[in-house]
Amino acid sequence: MTAIFWKLGNSLAYVFLLGTNLYSDLGPNQAKSPYFLSHTTYITPAYFTFYVWFLIHLLLGGFVIYQFFPDNDKIIAEGINFHFFAIALLNSLWLFLWEIDFLFLGFIVILFVLLQISYVYWNLKKNHFRSDDIFQTLFIHAPFSLYHAWILIIAVLTIYATFTPARPIAYDPAVIGNIEPVTDETITDTSSVYYESPTILVQILVILGLLFMECTAIGYIEKFRGDLAGAAVIAWTLYGVWSEQQDAIIRWTAFVLALITTLHILKPLILKYVFKRDDTPIFG
């Protein structure tokens, strides 16, 4: 009875989370949406990075359906319980706070989201919840691995948006004449956009943030039984930072760390499929 209660709650939470993200992406207040690079800082990745939400929502949709299959009662009741419901509501609240510029409150909320998703993530990594079943891996373990890594990235972006200077944006006067600097929300053509360089302190803080991402990606692989999904989200984000940022130090630091992460992702795959090391864990 408890399991079916949480399964129905998970379904409603998923629909609500999907609806809020679609409204943010397609609604009338797009300029304030994080998917359109509002509140940009010197660690903000390119807009395409946020496309990972499509994959997360797709797999979470599979999770909502797969949870009703037989033999999933225990993992839903004990491994996930009410936490996905809380995660979806708090994630939507964070999105709302971001869009109305309440960044400090958003920072507090996203920390609660991170705590909730971490609890589920660690629960699913317990031995009695691990499975060689491809569908359980694809529709339970994979979406929460991706979601955990993405919420971690969102938390980092929120921290930098809250506590570090915004990245000023202007049009290149050499291209279109001398006009006043504009904000992200008014940009329609970025072909002549340039950004002011960060201070040394901001460069140091951003590099520390990038190193934190890289260390987390390695932790996903080494500590959590080859969690390639979580590591891939971080690699994707690092490539996004490399693509978006113009400061040479930040840009190329992100690129090098992205390459290191990519090579680390390939390591368990090579051990398992090239050197036939069957004891090498893949995807947790």
Automatic annotation (TrEMBL):
Top-level division of the source organism's lineage: Eukaryota
Residues spanning the membrane: 48-68, 80-97, 103-124, 144-163, 200-221, 228-243, 249-266
Key words, A-Z: Membrane, Transmembrane, Transmembrane helix
Protein name, per record: Putative membrane permease
Natural source organism: Gigaspora margarita
